[in-house]
UniProtKB/TrEMBL annotation:
UniProt enzyme class: transferase
Name this protein carries in UniProt: tRNA dimethylallyltransferase
InterPro entries (UniProt xref): Dimethylallyltransferase, IPT, P-loop_NTPase
Pfam family, one: IPPT
Catalytic activity, as annotated: adenosine(37) in tRNA + dimethylallyl diphosphate = N(6)-dimethylallyladenosine(37) in tRNA + diphosphate
Species in which this protein is naturally found: freshwater metagenome
E.C. code: 2.5.1.75
Length: 301
């Protein structure tokens, strides 16, 4: 690598964005987003997307590139992100990848090949999901590939069906189609993970959700519905957004929507931890360590 490539990962609410910006200011880097929901225009409050002011002039890439009616895909993201790294290096700058979507990060740094979609298998699985329900189709994945099920949201039917499709099409567990952590494409990348104790993380998540509501999260969702949020297959299922949609539909009250958002975030954090803890390349920094100093030492070592 002509310039450093730094990956900053970890669970929600651990301070990844702040560290990435501070590091970029120190080393003159550009930042690439690796949060799947921050790809969407207008999904700002509910994804805790850094504002233009918070970016402090640091170029941020792969934010706001999709309409909420469009579907994100790992394969397209992989190509976009790798191209961005090359462009940043051509400008003579380091690149920082930051986010909590583990599969997206892995798609960049490892040699992942995505099995082709089988329309017949997909249609049958979708019909099963419609007939049997989300819980039953997720239980099928748990039985066939518990490792994959531990990292996939049971409510994300699209991903559950995709995992089952790959299992049936390849005859192997979905997790077996993920490459080993060998960084074949970027072997000198620096992997940094931020971790916070459960005791500290719980109030952070609560405060994060409360802040989103105070900022006007409900109004954001109302506006996005007008822009096609319900028409896509991905964006409307995001944590917080799906709860507010249920609120607006009269299915739950506001207190329940907030409580459910907190609970769903905590569950997501556990899946993120399960995913990232499997990667032996990650250098973990705890909340009581000077993050920026430690990362600079790692880059300069």
């Amino acid at each position: 690598m002509s310039q450093p490539l730094v990956i900053i990962c970890g669970a929600t609410a651990t301070g990844k964005s702040s560290l990435a910006i501070n590091l970029a200011l120190e080393i003159g880097a550009e930042i690439i987003n690796a949060d799947s929901m921050q790809l969407y225009r207008g999904m700002d409050i509910g994804t805790a997307k850094v504002t233009v002011e918070e970016r402090q002039g640091i170029p941020h890439h792969l934010l706001d590139i999709l309409d909420v009616s469009q579907s994100a895909s790992v394969a397209s993201y992989q190509e976009l992100a790798r191209n961005k790294i090359s462009e940043i290096w051509e400008r003579g700058n380091p690149a920082i990848i930051v986010g909590g979507t583990g599969l997206y990060i892995k798609s960049i740094i490892d040699e992942m090949n995505f099995p082709d979609t089988d329309p017949a298998i997909r249609a049958r699985l979708e019909a099963d999901a419609e007939l049997l329900g989300a819980a039953a189709i997720f239980m099928r994945l748990q039985e066939q590939d518990p490792e994959a099920a531990a990292t996939i949201d049971s409510a994300n039917i699209r991903r559950v069906i995709r995992a089952l499709e790959v299992i049936e099409a390849t005859g192997k567990p979905y997790s077996a189609n993920l490459p080993e952590d060998v960084s074949a494409r970027y072997p000198e990348a620096i992997h940094i993970g931020l971790e916070v104790s459960r005791e500290s993380l719980a109030p952070r998540i609560q405060a994060r959700v409360d802040h989103m509501w105070d900022q006007g999260f409900v109004a954001e969702v109302e506006e996005l519905i007008k822009e096609g949020l319900l028409e896509g297959t991905t964006a409307h299922k995001a944590i917080g957004y799906s709860q507010i949609i249920a609120l607006l539909n009269g299915e739950i009250d506001e207190s329940s929507a907030r409580e459910s958002t907190v609970t769903a975030t905590r569950q997501y954090v556990r899946r993120q931890e399960t995913w990232f803890k499997r990667d032996r390349r990650i250098n973990w920094l705890s909340e009581d360590q000077p993050h920026l100093q430690k990362v600079l030492e790692r880059i300069n070592s």
